[in-house]
Amino acid sequence: MVSEPAQDPAYIPKQPVVPYKRTCPFDPAAEYSRLREEDPISPVSFDLSPGRKDGWLITRHEHVRQIMTDHRFSHRNELLALVHSPPFEVENYDPQPSAPGNFVRMDAPDHTRYRRLLTGFFTVRRIQEYEPRLEAIIDGVLDEMAEMEPPVDLVKAFALKIPARSTCSVMGVSESDLVTLAEHFDVIMRIDYTLEEFIHHNTGLNTTLERMMRERFAAEPGDDLLSRLIATGELTEEEMANIAWIAIGGALDTTPNMLALGTFALLEHPEELAKLRANPELMGSGVEELLRYLTISHFGASRTALEDVEIEGVKIEKGQTVVLSLPSANRDAEYFEDADTLDVTRPARRHLAFGFGIHQCLGQHLARATLRIAFQKLFDRFPDLRLTVPASQVPLREKAMHYGVYELPVTWG
Ligand code: HEM
Q: Residue 86: which CATH number?
């Protein structure tokens, strides 16, 4: 149950339970280096989870991977403590099981049933077949950007447009519905909204998705992902609306942040950008390295122990939530040589930017292809692209589910 936000002017919004304040826009909070070294399974306190106050922050690559494949750890919504509580008071926090279709926060066999229906649409082969369409979308966005008078905000002119248009084409969502959904997701995926904003955007999101599904069930099926899922006859309108929530939200909040933050990182590492320009075949490994180095899922992933589990002498008790720090795991020097250096020639494939195990990102091949083609074409088309403000003035998305930049002012010519 949610109560009114505190009116006290001294009221300080709640913070995530994990370190997230940065000193450099590309590096995770400095605290992670110490934790990995001295306290890799360190206690944290979840103040919104009665009875499950204590949990653990896991910072080493080895332990994060281990927990992500260990069936003694659950992703069920009703068991998870909140890693970033909302900035308003919540009384009697009592999480419920995930709604039908919201398979991200389910375990096998429920998770398996839904994921199985979707996997075929996101295989490497499917995405390869889709690449010509993706190239046309990216060319179109760059044509529009070239028509603009610089300076422009690269987030709006480039990063947000590409995943939005490819989501429309893959999922069969109309552009006007997508604009509405994107506006709602933009707020819901932050962690500093007010109670009023939360209610407004959460309701807007759900009513839009429910209406879209009602229309879809009544219409002749098309050739897009949502139509083909409906055609299986295995899913209700409610399940479809929740699946659409995950798939559309998953696409709209992630790839744009990687596109904008990745461009920012390359502009600030001109020697790495020069390597990619000189050797276009490096773009595949360059994208993996950017995913590792920047790890935009900066609050990590969480799981809850279904029984007592001991890891390196630390007892994680049944019912305790563990936060798996993906940014920290991806900077683990035991795993990646010179881990704090961006090196586009590094074979960084075993990074954890897409998670690991049964919940590993469903859209990873689409994201990879989008990033590879988009960076290639952006720097071909605008070879002298540069920032118009000092790097220190670029506004950072520290209080959002996915890290990135709110704006990236650039110019060319
Ligand atoms: C650079 C882009 C992306 C990043 C960094 C990213 C990151 C992640 C991560 C870390 C997870 C695992 C969460 C966990 O285990 O708790 C995940 C899961 C997921 N992602 Fe992505 N993602 C990206 C793009 C996408 C796209 C484009 C889509 C949709 C087409 C998508 C859909 C999903 C879905 C549905 C899941 C849940 C899978 C499951 O629970 O079985 N993601 N993503």
A: 1.10.630.10
The answer to whether position 307 is within a domain reads yes
Q: How far apart are CA 84 and CA 141, in angstroms?
A: 35
Total count of domains within the chain: 1
Cα of 324 vs centre of ligand 1, distance in Å, is: 15
Ligand 1 contact via 363 beta carbon (within 6 Å): yes
As a whole number, mean pLDDT of residues 86-109 equals: 84
CB 259 near ligand 1, within 6 Å: no
In a domain, 11, yes or no: no
Pairing mode of beta strands 321-324, 54-58: parallel
Bridging pattern class, strands 152-153 and 409-411? antiparallel
Residue 64 near ligand 1, beta carbon < 6 Å:
no
Nearest CA to ligand 1 atom 23: 254
Q: What's the rounded mean pLDDT across residues 329-341?
A: 96
Whether residue 260 is contained in a domain is answered as yes
Q: Which residue has the CA at smallest separation from atom 19 of ligand 1?
A: 361
Residue range(s) defining the domain that contains residue 65: 31-411
Question: Strand 301-305 and strand 309-311: pairing?
Answer: unpaired
Least confident of 12-21, 89-98, 132-141, 363-372: 12-21
Higher per-residue confidence, 213 vs 11: 213
Residue 7, in any domain of the structure: no
For residue 2, the model assigns a pLDDT of 34
402 alpha carbon to ligand 1 midpoint, in Å? 11
List 74's β-bridge partners, or say none.
304
- Rg (C-alpha) for the chain, rounded Å, is 21
Q: Would you place residue 11 in the very low, low, confident or very high pLDDT band (cuts 50, 70, 90)?
A: very low
